[in-house]
Amino acid sequence: MKPHLLQLLSGFALVSVSSAAEPSTAPDRHDFFYAGEAKTQDMYRVEKGALVWSWHNPGSRGEISDAVRLADGRILFAHQYGVTLIDGADKDNKVLWHHDAPQGCEIHTASMIGKQRVLFIQNGPEPKCVVMNIATNQVEREFPLEVGNVKGTHGQFRHAELTATGTLLVSHMDGGKVSEYDDHGRELWTAKFPGPWSASRLPNGNTLVTGSKLVREITSAGDTVWEITPADLPDQGIRSFQISTRLANGNTLVNNWVNSWSETVDPATAPAQVLEVTPDKKVVWTLKAWRDPLNLGPSTTLQLPDSTRAKYDKFGGFHD
């Protein structure tokens, strides 16, 4: 074969390898429900890359720190100064239930237990986990939670999540740990972690914990089996991790939250809101949706249709 032909073929091979290494940016890779901490309260649902549902509260007070779309279409979301349940299948997004945080307190995370109970964490001078019956508005159980600073209401908790066994994983953000509790507040397991924002129990029994600059999978003994940091993603403009999700294919979805209070978002230069990374830390997909018709704003929650958040609805003896 002639030398110049070898060079030409070699060039094609290099181009092919480089192209294959580029992460996908196709918005239809996943269907998802989406919400984020921002100056306004906004939630979205995207299917096949197109916006199919949205909810906006432009005059709102407080940020959406946690939101979950339930199997029946209802949407439960915590928005700093309260928690609300709406009918996401209704064209008017009817409010089904609402609870205001007491003066001086904040609510940043909530989970549904069956159809008539909501579990939420109340930040404040007396931080606690609360189980409330939404039909009667009566508190059916509550127990105190340890914090690093009882006066630092805003920084105490952001996320708690039910497990398949009916326990609760609580991320003690200002306490530097993740703890698992039963429905009476007994601590069953704990692991140290710097500033945990969220945590979820994986099918293999390990726990996936997310902090602003670290995502780590840890065993029940507290050993690290996998982790990723912004240093592993040098070209992605990572601002802050908040929630990560382990996919069935072994990859991990992690959000990249942009603080719209301290940074002006320029759609031309803003980073991806969500990344999908492989076990060997290769980025295979990014969601960058800062422009109409798919302008989703800052990312905190990206929930896939098969999310366990919509399935796990038992907390000890509380269930339907």
Question: Can you walk through the features of this model?
Answer:
This protein is mostly beta strands and 320 residues long. The protein has one domain: YVTN repeat-like/Quinoprotein amine dehydrogenase (Methylamine Dehydrogenase, Chain H), CATH 2.130.10. 6% of the residues lie in helices and 42% in strands. It contains one helix and 26 strands. It has a four-stranded antiparallel beta sheet with strand order 3-2-1-26, with no helix packed on it. Strand 22 (274-277) and strand 23 (283-287) form a beta hairpin. The longest helix has 19 residues, at 3-21. The radius of gyration is 21 Å and the shape is globular. The N and C termini lie far apart (74 Å). Mean pLDDT is 92; it is low at 1-20.
